[in-house]
Amino acid sequence: MKRILQFLGVVLLALPDAPAQQPGRAIPADTLFKQAGDLMDRENFPEAIAVLSDLTGRISWMEHSANARKTYNNLGYSYYLSQNYPESAQNYERAVFLAQELRDTTKWITSQISLAMAYRQLGLYGRCLEANQEALQLARQTGDWESEANILNAMGITYQNLADWDKAIDFHREGLNRSYQHGDTLMASYLMSNIAISQAGKGKIDSSLIYNLQSLRIKQTLMLDSTAYVKNYQNIGDSYLDLDSLQLASDYLAKAEELYSALEDKKGLVGCYSSLARLYLARSLPSEAEKYLLQAEALLQSVTVKNLQIEYLTQKVDLLERKGDFPAALTAFKELTSLREEVFQSEQLEVQRVESAYALREKELVAQRLAQDAALVRAQSRKHVQLLVFLGVSLLAAILITLFFSRLNRRLAESNQHIQMQKLELKHTTYNLLMRIQSLLRMTAKSIPDPASKEKLQQIESAVLSAASLQQFTYGVEKEDEVSLGEYLEELINRLKEAFDTSGFAHVNYEVRIKEDAFFPVNTLLNCGMIVAEIVTNAIKYAFTNVPEPRISVSLAYEGPFLLLQIGDNGVGMDRNVMAKGIGIDLIGKLARSIKADLAVNSEGGTWYTLKIRRNRFVSSV
């Protein structure tokens, strides 16, 4: 063996080394990756993108699929939070492809969900749903219920973007059921908020209100930050406003205003002020409504969210009409109409631009992949020579080691065979010795006049006979921890019958009924055999006075969780005084306790001993 190891050492030293990195030339790739992670943690996404883009040019780093996957995934994340959704989607696509190649289902699901989010931001709802559907199938196959709930939520939101409220509700309800099944109340609260939005979209204000109230209660019970539930307050206030429950609407919108102000959330405040203006218009208090609209107008100077501007202008038109200022109302209405048209046109143009840019980018991506594949092939070809040499050396080493171990196994097999032969010879010798001891005990018992001493010797003889029977029974048994109790009892009863037939008890009949067998280690079988032999001996000696057809029965069966071993006779039975004083009862009780069996004795219609052994005490059953 030492020569083999020396040979391998010489060959491995002769293998060519990979070219070494020149010190001071470049920062190691893994260090760059960690730097990019730190930049992402600090939300410095432009610099993170620059570092990660540099990494994509490192062939030695990118030729490993695991490195390439996490690099593209982090690029997708950084571009997403930089609101550059086309680049985000393209990098997530690469990450998904590499996760598939690596067969890493967890990373595949994560990147697939992120890709779907980027598609949704681009307005590519069809692709978004396809990506989410694939991720959902993977999550269900792997039993990842948490990802499954998140994906169902995302698919519901996509259908909300498409104003398909029924499908949105279906997906959100399915996600809600998954969350409840696994006790995820946090996810359940967000799904309830989304169901409330869809119900409002369908015009079912009552249902929307119920879901928002439930979501708010759960979030407050979980003691979440107010950012998690401030929108619930506003939505609940809007629902009460739609239902003309103005006081309740006022309470919830006032609370929403308080929370938005504490959070310094300008966008939230604009929407809340528009809702409060609508509330005071419903109360026929235009002057109060105007105050809130003026506050919203001031905030809109720094908040350029067109949907909020549309809501503001809608309430402004209503206010001006109620004040009777129709020229100003007409101007505001024209501005509102123009803004709505602008939003619609910009959305259409954005979709067309994205689709065109995406088609062009896909072609560029194909070209880049071809170039990268070519570079990877060149890099991998350099490794093939080393790999082939290493495989050759490994094969040679494997052959030598196999020859060494096959020779060693042959020697061990020969040694084991010799040990087995010695073991069988020892069993045979032990059996012969036990039979000689039995004969001596019988001769000694016959010559001793004292009944008590004779009884003791007969008990010992029965135990020796049990051990001898077990030795002979296990002569050809390979597994001594799994020996059949039923077969051993049949063998033992035959031995006892032969022994007692020669002692003048040939008229006794024996019956062995093995309804169900069990398997025990040899030590347990020996104790069971000694118990049976002792009971049979006692029955032969004391049970059959004036009994015309004496019979001894042994049975083995199951009763619920217990294995029942019953030994009995149809003799005269024993009175309680004799049972208490002994005639082997004490020995039988000790043997029963040694195998952790419960012993019961019944002297009605003969004497019956029942041993109850719990199932987990024995190896197996047939």
TrEMBL record:
Instruction: Outline the TPR repeats, range by range.
Output: 69-102
Alphabetical UniProt keywords: Kinase, Membrane, TPR repeat, Transferase, Transmembrane, Transmembrane helix
The residues covered by the Histidine kinase domain are 425-617
**What Gene Ontology molecular function terms does this protein carry?**
kinase activity
One of the Pfam families matching this protein, by short name: HisKA_2
Which chain regions cross the lipid bilayer?
387-405
Q: Which PROSITE patterns match?
A: HIS_KIN, TPR
Q: Which InterPro entries match?
A: HATPase_C_sf, HATPase_dom, His_kinase_dom, Sig_transdc_His_kin_sub2_dim/P, TPR-like_helical_dom_sf, TPR_rpt
The cross-references to PANTHER family, in alphabetical order and at most eight, read:
RAPSYN-RELATED, TETRATRICOPEPTIDE REPEAT PROTEIN 28
Name of the protein this chain belongs to: Sensory transduction histidine kinase
Organism for this UniProt entry: Lunatimonas lonarensis
